Amino acid sequence: MLDTFREVHTPEGVALQLPAAGPVPRALAWLVDAIIRFGVATASSMALAFLDEIGLAVYLIVIFLLMWGYPVVCEAMFDGQTPGKRALELRVVSADGAPVGWMASIVRNLMRTVDMLPFGYAFGVIAGLADPYGRRLGDMVAGTVVVHAPRVRLLRTAPSVSVHAPAVPLRPQEQVAVIAFAERATQLTTERQRELADIVEPVTGARGELGVMRLAGIASWLLGRR
Questions:
Q1: Does 85 lie in the same domain as 105?
Q2: How far is the C-alpha of 162 from the C-alpha of 68, rounded, in Å?
């Protein structure tokens, strides 16, 4: 199955397209996490080998935490990303595009016991191939989706950008264009950013660098960041 887009609408009426991840990048992210967990488990077994029964008890606790605590804590506390997902630039989000919460993360990871049946994540693979957004059973039950999340984002790397309401009402397609500009601006030259911002001066009420900053602020406003 190829990567596709899931369209969701924010409370402000903005249509967002979430780039849902296909099975290949998700499998690679899982492999990275598996290698990390295996390494931690191996190091723990070597460190606890000399503690006899106490060491065995602690080791079993470590294995339990690696199996169940590792993905839940990472997803809930680190913006939906385990180290493997971060390496592959993936992120778990709610079906409406909001950040994933503790309960949703717990549910989707507990459902792995079903996705793994009868062996080799067979149910999960079949569900992912059948679902248009590549969701396994755990994602369907928890109401989550795994999406591509490139690290370069203007709104995440420019804390000086303040929220700014548009000077005039924007049509849905214009709202999408503003958000797309803010997400991709860091991939453009400064001159190109200013050129694009100058085109929408009636919306921002400014030109040049100030226009670029206000356009990013409008994108934040459209995304509900008050």
A1: yes
A2: 39
